[in-house]
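Hi there,

I know you've been waiting on this one. I reran it after we fixed the sequence typo, so this is the corrected version. Both the input and the resulting structure follow.
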Amino acid sequence: MPVYLKCPVVSQESLTPTHFLLKLKAEEICHQGLPGMFVMIQCWEPGTADPFLPRAFSICDYEKPAIEIFYKTWGIGTYWMTRLKPGDTVHLFGPLGKRFDLSPYTHRILIGGGTGIAPLVALTRFISEQKITVILGAKTQDELFFENTFRERGATVLLATEDGSRGHCGLPTEILNELIQREKSESLHITGCGPLPMLQKIWETAERAKILCQLAIESPMACGVGACLGCTDPFWGIKTCTEGPVVSNYSPP
């Protein structure tokens, strides 16, 4: 069951001028949460109620008794988050949403773009005994994150940058297509998170190749519990907060 918490800030790390890793002490969520789930964070100064609505963030990792939130500054809410320091308090609600399938598969391909790689980091903590290939995509090498973390957890990491500054020059889905051509579809399981056009491409590719696929979709939301309908996704036709954020082209256990 989700819980309301006042979480002390453990640490805040600036990865780039716009990307941050926030660690919060949230033992209750560590006990309940699983990869793919998210939390709603109230991003306001005490006494201001601005912005009024909370923001949804994937849980990037679990390191008991703390959780990690990987985020990029977009507006007033995330800008407020960048000023948090150890000892400050954050109000949040969670864990929420559906989780990834943790069943053993012959070969799991994880593909992420931008801040969408966050839930994939958490997933590798739970499936480290499996064969894992991680495909990371970004516009430039400065926006490739957690490469060392994935390698330390036993994954093979392949990189794609749109400007060719690191790894494959192009899109991560192009690397995915090459992997699919080399391996039998029944041995693969694809998990992805990132920009919507990338996720739609992954979904269509998996459907054509008859490969099991799970995606964590992202959508603005106000409540996180299915009441406001603000996060309804037109492509998958679901309420992202309660029927997602993880969607599957099969029935996971």
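Quick highlight: Helices lie at 27-32, 76-82, 118-126, 147-152, 172-182, 196-209, 240-243.

Best,
R. S.
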